[in-house]
Amino acid sequence: ADGILLVYDMTRSSTFSNVNNWQSSALKYGLSGIPRILIGNKVDLKDERKIIRPMAEHLSEKIHAPDFETSALTGEKVKMVFQKIAELVYKSKVDHK
After folding, report:
1. Alpha-carbon Rg of the chain, whole angstroms?
2. Distance of alpha carbon 80 from alpha carbon 86, whole angstroms
3. What's the average model confidence in pLDDT over 38-64?
4. Per residue in 21-39, pLDDT tens?
5. Residue 42 has what DSSP assignment?
6. Taking the domain 4-95, which CATH number applies?
7. What ranges do the domains of the chain cover?
8. 6: pLDDT strictly greater than 80
9. CA distances from 79 to 21, 48, 96 (A)
């Protein structure tokens, strides 16, 4: 893997809790130096939101990953996420040559 997208559903707390498990699995398989992004999806469902910004910011700092709030339905910030992971992967490859 060259990059990791850790995606959780902002309307379901259980998916947010699973991010730590996914992060642990990545570390277990030797992917500690791989660029990663934390993504909260379904930002368009504001009334159903369970994960608030401070929670995401805290986890983002803990796992050393930038975080974004996106909507697959509307496309909000989806392109930005892929541009960012491409940038991080490229930088990682250049820095390790």
Report:
1. 14
2. 10
3. 97
4. 999 999 999 898 899 999 9
5. -
6. 3.40.50.300
7. 4-95
8. yes
9. 26, 24, 26
Q: Other C-beta atoms within 10 Å of 68: how many?
A: 22
- Write down the pLDDT at residue 45: 98
Is the CA virtual torsion 62, 65, 67, 72 positive or negative?
A: negative
Q: Which two tokens stand for residue 76?
A: 């909000």
Among candidates 40, 39, 22, which has minimal Cα distance to 31? 22
Q: Read off the tokens for 91.
A: 């930088």
43 and 70 in contact (C-beta within 8 Å)? Answer: yes
The structure's pTM equals: 0.93
Two tokens, residue 16: 């947010």
- pLDDT for res 9: 98
